[in-house]
Specification:
Blueprint lengths: L25 E10 L3 H24 L6 E10 L6 H9 L5 E9 L5 H13 L4 E6 L4
Parallel strand pairs: 1-2, 1-4, 2-3
């Protein structure tokens, strides 16, 4: 795991705010997004990920009275292309400034341990924040 992608505090990489500065907790959502190589799998993956990101965004809006920062950290796995930073970023824009999305890169092969290892490190460094893990299973 690259420490550069694992901030010990959520600073400018997460919308320029820290939960300490505004007395807010941060909800960090990890999305491990897999796509197979067939056309059908790619379309299914895009649909599932769009639905999942939209749900996270709607949750961030609905919980806005709790004054929490929401961060989506997502990684694409498998076939390269269908789940891109542009595709997810365009969905995230709909929920800005409530949801801050951060692309964690693409891996052709890799199990969930890549994302789960990052989640573990973030939990170790940010014990007061809330963490959610989502997998695009079924795509």
């Amino acid at each position: 795991v690259n420490d550069a992608t694992l901030p010990h505090t959520f600073d400018t990489r997460f919308g320029g705010r820290t939960h300490d500065e505004e007395n807010r907790r941060t909800v960090i959502v990890f999305l491990h997004a897999f796509s197979g190589s067939s056309s059908e799998s790619k379309e299914t993956a895009k649909r599932i990920v769009a639905e999942q990101v939209g749900q996270v965004g709607r949750s961030a809006i609905a919980a806005s009275h709790f004054k929490m920062n929401w961060v989506l950290m997502y990684r694409s796995v498998g076939a390269k292309g269908p789940i891109s930073s542009g595709m997810v970023g365009s969905i995230c824009q709909r929920y800005n400034p409530r949801l801050h999305c951060r692309y964690q890169g693409h891996v052709s092969k890799g199990q969930e341990d890549i994302s789960l290892g990052q989640l573990h490190d973030v939990c170790q460094h940010n014990p007061n924040d809330l963490v959610v893990y989502i997998h695009s299973k079924g795509s």
